[in-house]
Automatic annotation (TrEMBL):
Highest taxon above the source species: Eukaryota
Lineage: Eukaryota, Metazoa, Spiralia, Lophotrochozoa, Mollusca
Full protein name: Uncharacterized protein
Protein's organism: Dreissena polymorpha (Zebra mussel)
Amino acid sequence: MAIYNPTVDIDTASMDELQLLPGVGKKVADTIINIRDSEGRMTRELLTRIPHFREAEGLWSMVHFSKSETENSEVESEVEKRES
């Protein structure tokens, strides 16, 4: 039987969705949302700085950062255009 681990978009997830992640309780989820609202996005670095956040096994395979990933792709595309 296969185990299904859905990925959670840290940049758009609700409080309930964030709490599905291992090591993320109500306080950490609330902090993620507050940082995300003030910064416009969440990054792995910001996430690891949250008090009481712990990197549970398998966590990073269960999350993605859509806004950060989009920005990185746009920057990489711009660099590729300049190098051409």
